[in-house]
Amino acid sequence: MELNREIEEDLRGLNNEKQLPEKNYEELIEKIFSLFTTANTTSQLSSSIDKHLISSVLTFLFECVKYDLDEAAVRSKFDELQFTNKSRQDRFLQAYTKHFPTIQLYLKQKAIEHDRLLNVNWRLDLQLKTNYTDKLLEPIYTLDWTKRDKYTSNIDHIQFTCSQESLQELLEKLKDAQSVLHQMQYQQQTKK
Fold it and tell me: What positions does the domain COMM occupy (predicted)?
């Protein structure tokens, strides 16, 4: 499992009780895992919890479920990321173990299969970062995927942003998937 540097820093920041008090950590874990168990997904987190931190924890959670990691593997990953607060690890792992099948099902339902992807639109934005002494223009790509829900005619739009490096990785993975599909089609045709 590979995580970008910002997510790793956010997970290391979970150690710091001054940055994220115990009460807020409990609320963060409770709200994140309740997203998958309640019909009302509009539950609000307190404004003291950074949205970037929520996104990082969710990304880590999805990666753990995607790779089907057990408790020992997740704990090992925490140690690798230098998130060493054992009580906070235990709280996360308790919720992770409890909600693992539900999150796995959720991810399977949200998966995009190649035959249901209808359209991809993209645009290039420039993110301006200032530090009083210098300016950095960083290209950010916004992608909008249109897909049809499985067994229905409902149309979903999935929108996300990524850096140029992430977009190149995505493109390489899509090309790999396309070549595998072509190989499978070729093998099926030769069997006939």
Answer: 116-185
CA–CA separation, 125 vs 122, rounded Å? Answer: 10
Q: Which residues of the chain have a pLDDT value below 50?
A: none
pLDDT in tens, 81-100: 998 899 999 999 999 999 99
The terminus-to-terminus CA distance of the chain in angstroms comes to 39
What was the pLDDT predicted at 113? 57
Contact 168, 159 (CB under 8 A): no
